[in-house]
Amino acid sequence: MIGSPGPRIFDLDFFFCMPVKTQRFVAILSVVLFLAKMLAWGLTHSVMVLTDALESIVNMISGFLGLFSIILANTPRDTNHPYGHGKAEFLSSAVEGTLIVIAGVLVIYEAVQHLIVPHELEKLNIGLFIIAACGLVNYLAGKYVEKRGVKNNSMILVSAGKHLLTDAYSTVAIMIGLTLVLLTHNKYVWLDSGVALCFAVIIIFTGYKVLRRSISGIMDEMDNVLLQEVIKVIQENRQPQWVDLHNLRVIQYGSLMHIDAHMTLPWYFKVVDADREIHSLEALIRSNFKNQVELFIHIDGCMPYQCKLCALPDCPERQQPVQQQLEWTVDNLWVDSKHGKEVVV
């Protein structure tokens, strides 16, 4: 059973939906902030300000990549992409992570150069004002974008929001460093490069985390948190006729949640009965997760050795009494084998 199709890439309504509008806002804002920070760097010649500006370059590039990816990720599947285009989000995040790491390396290079050949900073008061304004805008925008990302189950928006917040927090420290240099009349100008080096390490670590998460998505690494949430919902709403569940796979591509599983039902159920149970499971997932859901369920008929796990009352074909219904967990649901052959403790 396949969930409802996603928006078409040329659907004007989709171009004005909340995720796209939010990401478009991020992209435009990144250009404005980049130009402001470059102005501040041109006035002050500070490596710390350059650090902020380089982060804005990353924000700008990833903002437009994210806008393209969020549109592509939500286009419906086709013959060339039977599982949809959701992995475009992971590719976009991978590029973003790579750019963040490169920015960190460039900051280290500039900071070391200025440590070897120090120079006085200029017009720090004007530079501080510009950087402070950019930091405040980054913080407010980051909170807004992250909230929208969580609401719309968009990894791109959540990543963009966190990146904006990280940028805002680093701006605070940069402002502290610039203030110290200003108050000491360039006596401790080495602080400019020292603070920049510290933030370069933080930037590189942030890039690594974004890159690591993206590679995990591209490689279809299991999202254990999501898997546990799905299993909890199914276990708490389990029906007696759902004798067994195994070979469960849960993957999220953009706003699409893809679920594969083998469900064991009483062997004497008709096709219409099995279809009803699949619809029931899909409705359960949809009601608890605000996603499009694509459900591929393979139906198995129950075996005599599973009677001891089956809680279906008044089963006309029961061959042995119920001993204990197996509690479904991450450890036993991913296995590609029917339960019941083993001894239940």
Labels describing this entry:
345 residues; 3 strands; 9% strand; disordered N terminus; 10 helices; Alpha-Beta Plaits; Alpha-lytic protease prodomain-like; 2 domains; mainly alpha
Description:
- This protein has two domains: about 10-220, Alpha-lytic protease prodomain-like (Up-down Bundle), CATH 1.20.1510.10; about 225-335, 2-Layer Sandwich (Alpha-Beta Plaits), CATH 3.30.70.1350.
- It is built from ten helices and three strands.
- It has helices at about 10-15, 20-45, 45-75, 90-115, 125-150, 155-185, 190-220, 225-235, 270-290, 330-335; strands spanning about 245-255, 255-265, 290-300.
- Helix 9 (about 270-290) links the parallel strand 2 (about 255-265) and strand 3 (about 290-300).
- Mean pLDDT is about 80; it is low at about 1-10.
